[in-house]
UniProtKB/TrEMBL annotation:
Subunit structure: Forms a complex with SecD. Part of the essential Sec protein translocation apparatus which comprises SecA, SecYEG and auxiliary proteins SecDF-YajC and YidC.
TM annotation in the entry: 27-47, 150-170, 177-199, 205-226, 257-275, 281-307
Gene name in the database record: secF
Function recorded in the entry: Part of the Sec protein translocase complex. Interacts with the SecYEG preprotein conducting channel. SecDF uses the proton motive force (PMF) to complete protein translocation after the ATP-dependent function of SecA.
Name this polypeptide is given: Protein-export membrane protein SecF
Length: 330
């Protein structure tokens, strides 16, 4: 069956004529305010660092083969001890290498003013009382030095991804496009950090992975719009730049909506049924997809109007800079 035969696809118009640039100035102001607020929020009140970055302890908990370990009860028993961030994840048994639901790994924070051995014993006692007879193995404590190295590596991974995206845009598009891409990418990363701070989500390696995915998705969406814009600039050499931008966004709009909606639908299902371990990852990534779509329409492309763009191939912009929302349409 072809895509045109799907009832939902038929609801989307084949051709739209929305004037996106007309409202770009207002959205730019809103985006700037939210971006500044998000950056401030990263320092005050700051990120709620999880076990991966603050240090803590982990242990494997296993029931006899064939018996199911209730993860909700396991998580609740440890959470009730007020040890901060608690992570519980089902894993395969060591002896059979099969995931039969009988084994899980538990990670929790160890307060700096408490003895590590005493805290581990208290956790084991609470788990045994909640889920019955279990065995413990692989008990380890992550110190501040290791967690600090993980935080440093996580930050380096994010910075490296952003730099690589910048290099890709610089290689593929004119510098005017690069400014729009850089602004959109920084906007998406900052606002996603703002969501993490606002919801007080535990900032762990899972969220670093989500942020890296957001960076890739945002850049992919921006490149799709920029590719069409570059083609239309060559095709319509006398059309006003604002109109070419509107045309390019409209021509890629159906693709953007379909991709974004289907991705968010999957992430919503993952957030609802994926359990506590994947909820933060799913919410962060879903927000990143939405904000990445927004930035490709209202940040990346319209900002090119501020600089003009070269249509002649001579290396100079043949269109004068335009104030957003001020130029009239023919």
């Amino acid at each position: 069956m072809s895509m045109n035969g799907w009832p939902i696809i038929k609801l989307l118009p084949h051709k739209t004529n929305f004037q996106f640039v007309k409202y770009a100035k207002g959205f730019a102001i809103l985006s700037a305010i939210l971006t500044v607020a998000a950056i401030i929020g990263c320092f005050y009140p700051g990120l709620n660092l999880g076990i991966d970055f603050r240090g803590g302890a982990s242990m494997e908990v296993a029931k006899p083969a064939g018996q199911v370990l209730e993860l909700d009860k396991l998580r609740g028993s440890v959470s009730g001890l007020d040890l901060g961030d608690v992570q519980v994840q089902g894993i395969a048994r060591r002896d059979t290498n099969l995931d039969d639901g009988s084994t899980a790994i538990v990670r929790f924070q160890v307060p700096s003013d408490q003895d590590q051995t005493a805290v581990v014993e208290k956790v084991e006692s609470a788990i045994s009382e909640a889920v019955g007879q279990v065995t413990y193995s692989g008990v380890s404590v992550v110190g501040s030095k290791v967690s600090g190295e993980l935080l440093t590596n996580g930050v380096l991974a994010l910075v490296s991804a952003v730099v690589l995206m910048f290099l890709y845009i610089a290689f593929r598009f004119p510098w005017q496009f690069g400014i729009g891409a850089v602004a959109g990418l920084l906007h998406d990363v900052a606002l996603t950090f703002g969501l993490i701070v606002a919801l007080r989500m535990e900032f762990s390696l899972n969220l670093v992975a989500a942020l890296l995915t957001v960076i890739g998705y945002s850049m992919n969406d921006t490149v799709v719009v920029f590719d069409r814009l570059r083609e239309n600039l060559r095709k319509y050499k006398t059309m006003p730049l604002r109109d070419v931008i509107d045309l390019s966004i409209n021509e890629t709009l159906s693709r953007t909506i379909i991709t974004g909606v289907t991705t968010v639908m999957v992430l919503i299902v993952l957030a609802v049924f994926g359990g506590e371990a994947l909820r933060g990852f799913s919410i962060t990534l879903a927000f990143g997809v939405v904000i990445g779509t927004f930035s490709s329409i209202y940040v990346g492309a319209p900002i090119i109007l501020l600089w003009g763009v070269d249509r002649s191939g001579g290396g100079k912009a043949d269109a004068k800079p335009v104030k957003l929302g001020m130029a009239s349409r023919p």
